[in-house]
Each structure stands twice: as structure tokens, then as C-alpha cells.
Design a protein that fits this description.
The chain is α+β, with helices and mostly antiparallel strands. The protein has 24 helices and 26 strands. It has a 5-stranded mixed beta sheet with strand order 2-1-4-19-20. A 5-stranded mixed β-barrel has the order 7-8-9-13-12. The chain has a 5-stranded antiparallel beta sheet with strand order 15-14-24-23-22, sandwiched between helices. A hairpin with a 4-residue loop joins strand 8 and strand 9.
Length: about 800
Amino acid sequence: MSDNIEKPENIEKPENNHEERIVYHDEVPQKKPLFLLRWFRKRPIPTAVGIIAIFVIIGGLAFFYKITRGLPPVEALRDYQQSLITNIYSDNNKVLGQFYIERRRPVSLSRMPKHLKNAVIAVEDSRFYQHGALDYFGIARALVTNILTGEIRQGGSTITQQLARSLFLSRERSLERKIKEAILAGRLEKLYTKDDILEFYLNQIYFGHGAYGIQSAANTYFGKDVEDITLHEAAFLAGLPKAPADYSPYHNPEKAKQRQEVVLKRMVDEKYIAEKDYQEAYKKSLVFERRKKEKEVAPYFLEYVRQYLEANYGSDMLYRGGMNVYTTANYDMQEAATKALKQGLRELDKRQGFRGPIGHRSPDEVQDIKKGKEARGMIIPPPDFGKDELLDATVIAVGNEGATVDTRSLKGRILFDDMKWARKRLLDPNDVEKFKYSEKAKPPDILKVGDIVKVAVKGVDAKTKETLFVLEQEPMVEGALLAMDPRTGAIKAMAGGYDFEKSKFNRAIQAKRQPGSAFKPIIYATAIDMGFSPSTILVDAPIVYEDPTLEKDWKPLNYDEKFHGFISMRNAIAYSRNVATIRLLEKVGTRGVIDFAQRVGIKNPLANDLSVALGSSSVTLQELTSVFGIFANQGTKAESMSIKLITTKEGKVLLEEAEVKSEAVLSKETAYLITNMLEDVIQYGTGQRAKVLGRQLAGKTGTTNEFTDAWFIGYTPNLVVGVWVGFDDRKSLGPGEAGARAALPIWIEFMKTALNQIPEESFTIPEDIVFTRIDPENGLLASDNTKNPVIEVFKRGSEPTKSSDASKPTQFFRMD
């Protein structure tokens, strides 16, 4: 403030008693109260409370509007129709699989026994017929119980609330969901009678193991219709909705029996039954239906089809619309593909070694299992699983002849011969080269009492009638199999991995892996397209490539690290000679091979260097199998297809029968010459194990460095099949696990079934193919002096014209 300004000493107050204040520049003004606060200060207390109440009411109405907005109408519940099932059919109209939300079989309340209804009411909502949508007494009782116990032991939801939640809401635990649940329950109670609500509830609720609704549950667990359910069975079923998985007799028989007892006691408390009825019912054994596991014939193929259907028709149509989808897959082939892949991967996994038990039980637990305590008062037949199904088993005794195991459904023995493979013990489950092997190991050295292991049913001992098991383990290695009709592109079978539930990644179409020698037919086909012939002589001898960008020179080797010297193209591919193929690639050029590969359908980028000769660039199994299909189909590429026809439940056609889309990308002569050479791979080369099939076959093995990937792709004129095996994280499969050992046995096992589904045919010989007698030592025309002449095939005009001179050694690399 300036020094020449003075403050007045006396200021009179005005008569209205309102204090007047003069503010000077050097004083800080006091902040005024917020507008609403000043406004409330000037109003009487009752008025202020009223205004606050109005705001609360408005806020409550807004919250109520937000909560109720979008809630589904309950008026149409009586007209509710269950979702229809979309059926997926094989090429011979067998059901491959189904897509649906729920499977249920609704029944009227009049068909349900009185003791069943009473059991459900007693354990779920004892005052169901006395209260409205909410049971305030039950809520208060649950609240007191939970406070006294310090944990949530009781809930206050009524049957009506549970129905509202099951029909219209998620199981999310939140205040908003509970409010919505209460509102919908109130609406249900206004529109429907208690009997209506109970009927809806019993037809809607989930009872476990895929059983929705009481009729489905009665059939699943006891093989009965609902009206035939007895008191002791009703008490069991009524106890399931609270926690179907926890009270499953197949998983937790003791808990299931305890839950049945709880329901029976509640029925006594509510005076639905007498004490003696409870005792009689509890003593009766529950005899369960044999548990059936739905056959997963084609999980990966079904997912492949599902993705197409959902993308093109929407999820509502897929899961509720009841479409009929007719696919190209062959049921028997698909079943064989899934089985062959699983068996092959298990056998490979066993060769890698035993990883030990998956768990261990205490001595007390083992004793309980021996005494059958866990299944007291319950008769559970062995599951209806095939020999391919792996079961968890507890070792309850071990001797030098084998081990006795219990699967909780079956008890039997593992003979020593069926566990010998486990004498090789992996020291590091992540490294197949770290293991310990003991030739002298006996069963007690392999298994201990209490060990939990995987087993498969082998059969029944003819003398003792005892169930026999094989020691197994879930393989860590993965694989894929794809079978196609080369003429139409129709996918006949697809297996994208060992277990779809554990990994939905489809390795048949998604995995990009190095094909190794399985890529060589593309190089040889490029050469033949450029004028080479099966008799062209290559040099299989050591070679060194200098590359200043690398730390050391590249010295490619053959699989056996041996060299054959001069070798024909036919023998080079039959025996899969790496060095000879690299020398051939040098002549045809990597650019030519890449262009050819793209022409026949390889979409993934390929390395523009000599390593492409060894299959160093990644491709998918579908890509490479399709290429081999071109060879089988005389040079014509057919676009892959999986669906032939789609109709609605009324029969309206949504997708007309698919037409074959094909294009000639290769001459018939080139395709035939490659096929003819690949026949020798099976006749005397790396794939000769397949001769056991006794059919005209062509194919090629493939193995990558460090045994990371193993392949076999083979074909007949009307079926091409590819198999890949490897770890997802690209670890080694182990020494010696080449394509002929790891992949070919899977291919053979599949073909044993597949060949029965197709007619036997021979490969068609094009008109411009000629057969000429040659000298195999040099590829020239055989002379009178030629030792062991052979008949070779050529494109017309490319056959040799010079005669062989047996007195002169081969000193050239023949390219014409």
C-alpha cells in the first residue's frame, strides 16, 4: 500500500445490523462459501433435508433406470424355445460334431416325482412356496450365519432368483448383478405361478457332465427318465446344482455321497420324509450309468469349420440356428487321423524317456483307495473309454512282475513288459538328451506305491479276468496330419495337435516349420521343368562354400555323413542326398526354384540362397501337402475346400454345393516324372517302411538340423497325406528321430484305414512320356556292353541319344 493513504479510524455500522466491511488493497479477501452451501445456510433445516432427499430420489431413479435398461423381458418365458443344434456332417452324412449353447430335454412338472421336487426345495429354497421373489427371512439367516462363522457358508438366493440368473444374467459377483437378479425375480413372480417357476428352474439348471435340466441329468447319471427316479437318487440329483463339478461321483465320489446325505437331512428337517426314510435311502447304493465320453473324432477340423461359419453367418445362427453343414471330411479317415497321431506321438514320447509320476498319494490315501472308502455306498461302472484314452491311476502295490493300480473306476495290473520303456528316465523334462537308462531296472525301480501315473487299458487277462493296463504319459511333443483329395482339394481328415482341449493351435494349417528334405521334390521338379531328367547324373562329393559374412565356411553334409560320388537324380532324391541336391540347385538357380514354388502354391517367403535346398525356409503342412497333391493330380492344383453344402433347419440352402476350383500349374509330364521318382523313395529309399501297405504310393521324408522337425508326405492318385512332428518350442526330438522314424509310422497307421475308403488306382502315364533302356552309371543309352541296364522314363524329346561306352569311366556331370 502507498504511504500517503490513511485508514479511517471510525466507521459507523448501518442500522440493519448487517456488518459492513471495507476491504483495503493490502488485505486478502476472505473466500465466500460455495453457492449451494450459502444457499442451504439461508434455508431452514427441514427444507434443506427435503432438497437432499429429492436429490437422493433422483439419483436412485437414475441408478434404477441404468440397472433396468436393457433387462430382457420375462413375458416370453412360457414360449421359450431351446436353442437348436447345428449339426456338422461327414462326406457320408455321419455326424462329425455339433455346435450349441446347451443340450436339454424339457419335461413338465407333472412328470417329476414328488420326492424329487421336495428334495430340490428342501436344499435350495425351503420357504419357496411361502415367500415372494426374495426370502427376507432367509437372507437374514444367511447373514447371521456368515457373520458368526466368519466366512460365506450360506446364500440367500431363492429358486426364482437362481432361475433369473441362469436365464438372463452372468454369474459375476457384483452388487449390480444382484439388484438385476432381484428385479427380474420380482417380474417372474408376478407373471408366473410357483409351479411354473419350479418347472422352468428344473428344466434350466445345470447338473454337470453336460446335463442341462433334470431329465438330461436323470439320463446322464442313472440312465432313467425323470419319473423313474427314486428317493435316494433324487437326493443325489438335488445336491448337484450348487457345485456340479465338486459333487461329481466320477471325480469326487466321497463328496457326492456326503452331499446326498445333506439333502436327505434337509428333507427330514422340513418334514418331507421321516427319519427311517432317510436311513433307508442313505444305505441304498447309488448305481450310476457308465460315463460316456463324447468321441472327439475331429476337434481341429470342427474348429476350422466353426471359424468359417461364425465369420459368414454369425454366432447366433451358428449356436442357435440349427444349421446342417455337410463337409468334405471322411468320418473313418478323420477318426483314423486323430488316433494315428495320438498313438504316434505317445510312442515317440516314450522313446524320449519317462518323466516320472504326475503326483503322489500319502499312505493313508492309498489305504482308503484299497478299502474302497472313497466310493462308499456308490457303484460307479468303469468309464466307457477306448484303449486310446489315458486315465489317472494310483499305484497301490509294486513287485518284480509289475504293479497294481487303481483308477477309481477300474483296478488292474501293469505287467513289466508294458512299463519297460520307463527304464529310460529323463533327468530334465525339457531336454530329451539328458536321461538315465538302466537295463537292469525292475518295476520297483520305476514306480513306487502312491505314485499317480497315466495308464491306458490294454485288455483283460484271459486267465485271471483282471484288467491289464499299459504305463503311459501325456506327450510333450506335438504333430499334425492333413489328408486331401488332390483332384478336388477336399479336406478328408485334419488333426492339428495331440489334444485340442490343451492347445487349440492348429498345426496342420497354422504352424510354419522348416520342411527339411520334404522340400526337395520342388527343387527336382524345377530341374525337370528346365529339361533335366531322372537319369541326369549329379555329384555327391564334399564341397566347401566360403562366405565372408559367416564366421566359418559352410560344409554341407549328408544325413549319414557319407558320399556316393556320381549319382542319378532318381537315386539322389530316393536316398535324400543333401550335397547332390545343393549342386543341382546351383545349376537351376535359387530364383528359379522360388518362382516355381510360388507357382505351385508356396506363399511363405523362401531364402534366396543355397540353404533352400535343405528346406531351411518355413512352410505350413497345408502348403506342402497341397504341392504334393499337384504331383498326384497330373500338374493341376485344386483349391482346398471343407464344406459342400449348408442348409437351414427348414431345408433352405445357404451355400450351394461347392464347385471344384482348379488350375493347371505344371505339365503332366513333369508331375508324372516327379511322382515316378518319389515312388522309388518308398520302393528302396528313405520311405520304404510304407511298402507294408502294398499299394502304389509315392512320397518323401523330411528331417531338419538337430532333428527339430520330422515330415512325411505321400500320396496315391486320389489321396495326398502329410504328417509333421516336432516341439512347439523347436527343441530337438532326440538323436535319430528323422522323418522315417518319427513321422512315417503315423502316416502308415493312418493309411491302413484311409486306403480302405478309396478305390485302388495307378498313376496315369501321360502320352508324351517314353521309356528308354539306359546305363545307370552315366544316364546314356545302354549298349551291348552295359552291365545291369535299367528302364528309365523321360519326357518325349529329352531321352538320351548317345550310346554308353562301358569301357570309359564317367568323368562328367551330365546336364542334358
